[in-house]
Target: histidine kinase
Amino acid sequence: MTDQRIKWLILLIPTMTIGLWEYIRHAFLLPYLSMELGNLLAPFIVLTVTLTLVRGLFSRLEASLEALRRERELSAALEQREQLAKELHDGIAQSLFLLAVKLDRLDRTAPEGEEKVRSLTAELRSTVKVIDEDLRQAIANLRKGPTPADAAWVIPLRELLEETAGITEAQAEFRWAIPEDDLSPKEKVELYACLREALINVRKHAKATRVEVVGETNGEGGFRCAVEDNGVGFLGDPLTVKERFGLRMVRDRSNRMGWTFIAEMRGDRTVVEIVKPGESLE
Model:
């Protein structure tokens, strides 16, 4: 339903409601309902319809306007990124190219036997090449646009993974593909708390050399998030171990949100997984 149609419905529904009430009252209820009582009931009927139908339309209109606002913000951010990429390309990238050309010219004009000069220009040329490659990669990333892993609420989670990997001297991998708009504010808070607790559990007990955080969609509005490691794993049921409350807290949070909590060994991997069912994509 378009925003224009929603606005017209918001305007017309109260008017149509009072008109329909007056018709029913005069056509069918007049022998049973006094004029004073009918006039008294009219505003309550309009209020009831407004609270049921019109309020829902207002909610849909607000959601549509919020989506439009986010789209405009994203469009503005993409324009800024494109402008920055253009400035980097037209400015620094061109300057590096000219510097490389001058280094080549210096190398050709260096006197015979000046190996130190040639060695220095070779080192400088290598440095310029590395900087140029890094710059072009940065330009490509800017033009590619933001990814779900760049969302502000996801960044602390990625930093926590890197911190955990640093403390345990493990390799870290962060794979996140859940669009920010797919999660409500409450879901973000609860999901972050669950994954944070799972990472702390890895830090304390796993003795892993590799740890991963995965976030992916599994249907319309659904997702699968997991912390996986190749550590020592679970000895028995991890939810029954005395004085170990972390995973039980994750399970309880997940259950309150209506999510499925899984903690198990899959081959040589320990997996703590949270799943929100989604509608089928087929």
User: Anything to note?
Assistant: The longest helix spans residues 35-109. The mean pLDDT is 80. The CA atoms of residues 87 and 93 lie 9 Å apart. DSSP finds six helices and five strands in the chain.
